[in-house]
Amino acid sequence: MVSPPHALVIPYPAQGHVIPLLEVAHALADRGFAVTFVNTEFIHARVVASGAGLEDGGRVRFVAVPDGMPPGDDRADLVKLTILMEDHIAPRVEELVLASGEGGGAGGKITCMVVDYNVGAWALDIARRTGIRSAAVWPASAAVLSTLLSYDKLIDDNIIDAEDGSALGEETFQLSLDMPPMRSAHLAWNCVGENDQQAAFFQYIVAGVRAVEHCDFLICNSFQDAEPAAFSLFPNVLPIGPLLTGERSGKAVGHFWKPEDEESMSWLDAQPARSVVYVAFGSFTMFDRRQFEELALGLELSGLSFLWVVRPDILQGGAVHDYPEGFLDRVCGSGGRGKLVAWSPQQRVLAHPAVACFVSHCGWNSTMEGVRNGVPFIAWPYFADQFVNQVYISDVWKVGLKAVADKSGVITKEHIAARLEELMGDAGMRKRVEALKKAAHESIQIRGSSYGNFDTFAEGMRKA
Ligand code: UDP
Question: Model's pTM, two decimal places?
Answer without folding.
Answer: 0.96
